[in-house]
Each structure stands twice: as structure tokens, then as C-alpha cells.
Design a protein that fits this description.
Layout lengths: L9 H34 L2 E2 L11 E2 L2 H20 L3 H26 L4 H18 L18 H22 L5 H19 L3 H21 L9 H25 L7 H8 L1 H16 L12 H6 L5 H21 L5 H25 L13 H15 L28 H21 L1
Antiparallel strand pairs: 1-2
Helix pairs in contact: 1-2, 1-7, 2-3, 2-7, 2-8, 3-4, 3-8, 4-5, 5-8, 5-10, 6-7, 6-8, 6-12, 7-8, 9-12, 9-13, 12-13, 14-15
Length: about 450
């Protein structure tokens, strides 16, 4: 296999990896996404609008297939031609193996919804591969609360939990066009210069290839004519790689020649949005005695849409707040690590909720989103129609046309009287009959 490798000097290796990693997956994406979109449309593997959807038409899903293919092909090609060390190759193989587990898990979940427990098992297996085969671990708390180097098993278990947290956090923020991809670009663009300056070929390869693959996906995700969603196939895969890069950055920042004293705080700032949004939504669901795995519209991006913003505007605002927090950490790099972490934990909620404060002071009030329905009303309508027609009526767009009360959006008091319930159900049945007659 040695004849496939170019004899690159250390001076040239990093720039070649960076440029090739950015360009190749993007070019691959331009070729494979039209094929994926055509196949998905032909097989009718579409994401259909429903009561919790933020789109009004059928949209091809499975965009994560293109992400996985473009990233994996590029990684394997560059690993072969640039001559990574055996240890770097082992790390890359463990990352690709873990990615493959999540890829097939995501594909199956996009085709037939999997139980949360099965997805967790797959995520644990993927994390175990990286933690134990590649020895990618959070080895220290960096003196936080007096804790330094962690025992091996504590470090391994803690790292696996971090992988699970980030994989699911990315799955949760994939709710509006461009958001998960944009946060991934910010993450990779923040870490990549450090990998470049420290000459870490593997991490430079992974971060640049993920940027190229994500940019290729966003080209189609944000397209009006060739639009598609990444689905769980993409969000699980993307969250896994971001977790790998975040944990790896901590190791490189501790041992590399080029480092920042605010390493842990920088990682927390970079990943602040998915972590904060996941924590916020989890607290709301627990408080309302809802399942942690039941979808709702309590995410920050949903609330921004509720202010009347469009998808790209909400994504831009979240990205801007993310960049502001990262810049704050880098500017105040010389502060004590514990002060930095406390600062990030304090500023993150302020930054991300700043748009809501500005909107409030300007007198803006939330607007009704096109497909909003009280959760209890939606569930009653779906259950009732399902029992009447002996089939599952969701997800279908007729629910968008049902006029339901907007007050008490997520309260069980949304429909209380039997007369009100009957009125909503009859409207729903009429809308459903019209839908069926024209589709």
C-alpha cells in the first residue's frame, strides 16, 4: 500500500490535508446528493409535514447518507495518500467504525422509528470503540473543584457519557434548516486552527473533512429546489464526530506546542448551544411530567420562530450568539480556568436569551407558527381520527388546517369541555376527508 502514499514533508502535510479535506467532500457532495434526492423521491422516503413539523410540504430526508459517504471516502483517501502513522490509522478506523454504527442506526430510525433504548445502546457501542480502541478520553478536570487527573475507569465512563450527551444534543437541535450544520461548521472552524498549528494530521483530517461534508450538505439543505433534511442519519453521525473533536481538542491543548489556557472553557463555549438547549428542554419536560424522548416545540429555535423569524434568521442569531461566546473566552484567555468556566456558564444563558429580551423591550409578541397546535389537542385529534378510519393518520398535512385554541399551548386545559372537543374533532375529520380526496 506504500506506493499509494505521497512523501509529504511535515511543512506541506498540514496544508495539503486541510485543503484536500475541505475540497474533496464538498465536490463529492455535489455529485451524490442529486442521486440521493432522486432515490428518496422515487422510493417516497420523504419527511411529511405533521403537527410538530416546521415545513408544509414533503421534503426528502436521508441527507445524512451523503454526509457519511463524503466524509468517509475523503478520510480513507487522505489517510492512504498522506501516510498517517499506525496509531493515527487505528484512531481513524475506530472513528469510522463508530460512525458506521450510528449511520446504520440513523438510517433505520429514519425509515422505521426506533425505540430510544435501542438508539442509546448503539450510541454506547460507538463511544466504547473510540474510548477504548483509540484511547480518546477526558483524562483530567484541570483542577476544577480541586480535581486533577481522573482514574482510568472514571475517565472512560465519563467520556462515554459526554459522547451520549452530545450525540443526543445534536439530534435535538436538528429542528430548523441549517442549524445543526452551522453549529458544526463553527465547532470545526474553532478547533481546526489548533490542530493545524500543532501538526496533528488525524484531527486536521477529521475536522477539515467534516467542514467540507457539512458545507456540501448545507448547499442542498438550504436550496429552494433541491432541498433535503439530514434526518437522524446525519444528526447522530454529526454529533458523534463533534464529540470526538471536542474531547480530542482537550488532549491536544494539554500536550501540544500551541495551546490556550482556556481550553476547557473554549470547548464549553463552542458546544454551549446544543448543551444549553438540551438542558433547558429536559428540565421543561421533567417539570411537565413528559417523556424526555417525546418531541415538542420548546427548543430555543422554536421560540425564535415564535417571534416571527424565518429559519435562516433564527439560525443566524443562534450562530452569532455562539460566536460571541467563543470570542469572549478567547479574549479573556488569561483568566483562571475556574473563573472562565463560571463565566461561560453564566454568559451562555444571557447570550442565547438576549434576542428574546430585545424583542420584549421592542414590544414584539410571539406569533402563531403555521402548524402550531396544543399538544393535548393534537393527540386527541390523531387518536380519534385513527380510531374512526382504522389507520394511523399522521404525519399528514391536514392537521395544519385544523383551527384549535392557541392559549395554554402545552397545557392539558387546552381543550376541556366535551362540546369544544367535539367541535375540534369534526373540523379535523372534515379536513382529513378533504385531504384524502385530493391525495
Amino acid at each position: 500500500m506504500s506506493h499509494l502514499m505521497f512523501d509529504l514533508t511535515p511543512v506541506l502535510k498540514a496544508p495539503v490535508l486541510a485543503l484536500a479535506g475541505l475540497a474533496i467532500p464538498f465536490l463529492v457532495s455535489l455529485k451524490i446528493y442529486p442521486i440521493i434526492i432522486y432515490t428518496v423521491r422515487t422510493k417516497n422516503l420523504m419527511d411529511e409535514p405533521g403537527a410538530r413539523s416546521l415545513h408544509g410540504n414533503k421534503v426528502p430526508t436521508m441527507g445524512g447518507v451523503g454526509l457519511f459517504i463524503s466524509f468517509s471516502l475523503t478520510s480513507i483517501l487522505l489517510a492512504l495518500v498522506t501516510g498517517l502513522s499506525q496509531w493515527e490509522l487505528l484512531k481513524l478506523l475506530s472513528v469510522l467504525a463508530g460512525s458506521m454504527i450510528l449511520f446504520f442506526l440513523g438510517v433505520k430510525d429514519d425509515l422505521i422509528a426506533l425505540a430510544p433504548s435501542k438508539k442509546i445502546v448503539g450510541q454506547v457501542l460507538a463511544a466504547i470503540l473510540v474510548v477504548f480502541l483509540a484511547d480518546i478520553r477526558i483524562e483530567s478536570f484541570f483542577g476544577l473543584m480541586g480535581v486533577g487527573i481522573l482514574p482510568y475507569w472514571v475517565s472512560a465512563i465519563f467520556t462515554i457519557l459526554i459522547f451520549l450527551l452530545l450525540i443526543n444534543a445534536y439530534n435535538l437541535i436538528d429542528g430548523i434548516d441549517g442549524l445543526a450544520g452551522t453549529i458544526t461548521l463553527i465547532t470545526c472552524a474553532t478547533f481546526m486552527p489548533f490542530f493545524f498549528l500543532n501538526g496533528d494530521g488525524l484531527l486536521l483530517l477529521v475536522s477539515s473533512s467534516l467542514i467540507g461534508a457539512t458545507t456540501g450538505f448545507l448547499f442542498f439543505n438550504l436550496s429552494a429546489k433541491k432541498r433535503l433534511f439530514m434526518g437522524d442519519t446525519g444528526s447522530l453521525f454529526m454529533g458523534f464526530l463533534v464529540a470526538f473533536l471536542g474531547v480530542s481538542f482537550l488532549a491536544v491543548n494539554s500536550t501540544g506546542n500551541f495551546a490556550v489556557s482556556s481550553g476547557p472553557a473554549l470547548v464549553l463555549a463552542v458546544l454551549s448551544f446544543p448543551l444549553l438547549d438540551t438542558m433547558r428542554v429536559s428540565v421543561i419536560r421533567i417539570w411537565n411530567k413528559k417523556s424526555l424522548f417525546k418531541a415538542d416545540r420548546n427548543h430555543i429555535h422554536h421560540r425564535l420562530l415564535g417571534l416571527g423569524l424565518k429559519h435562516f434568521q433564527a439560525t443566524f442569531i443562534i450562530a452569532l450568539m455562539n460566536l460571541m461566546l467563543i470570542a469572549t473566552v478567547l479574549i479573556l484567555n488569561e483568566l483562571n480556568i475556574q473563573v472562565q468556566l463560571i463565566m461561560v456558564l453564566g454568559l451562555a444563558p444571557i447570550y442565547y436569551f438576549l434576542p428574546f429580551a430585545i424583542a420584549y423591550t421592542m414590544g414584539s409578541t410571539p406569533v402563531k407558527m403555521p402548524v402550531d397546535m396544543p399538544v393535548i389537542a393534537e393527540e386527541v385529534v390523531v387518536d380519534e381520527i385513527g380510531s374512526r378510519i382504522k389507520e394511523e393518520p399522521t404525519p399528514i398535512s391536514f392537521l395544519e388546517k385544523v383551527d384549535v385554541p392557541t392559549e395554554g399551548m402545552h397545557e392539558k386545559t387546552a381543550i376541556t369541555s366535551s362540546a369544544e372537543r367535539a367541535k375540534i374533532l369534526e373540523k379535523a375529520m372534515d379536513a382529513f376527508k378533504k385531504y384524502k380526496s385530493t391525495n
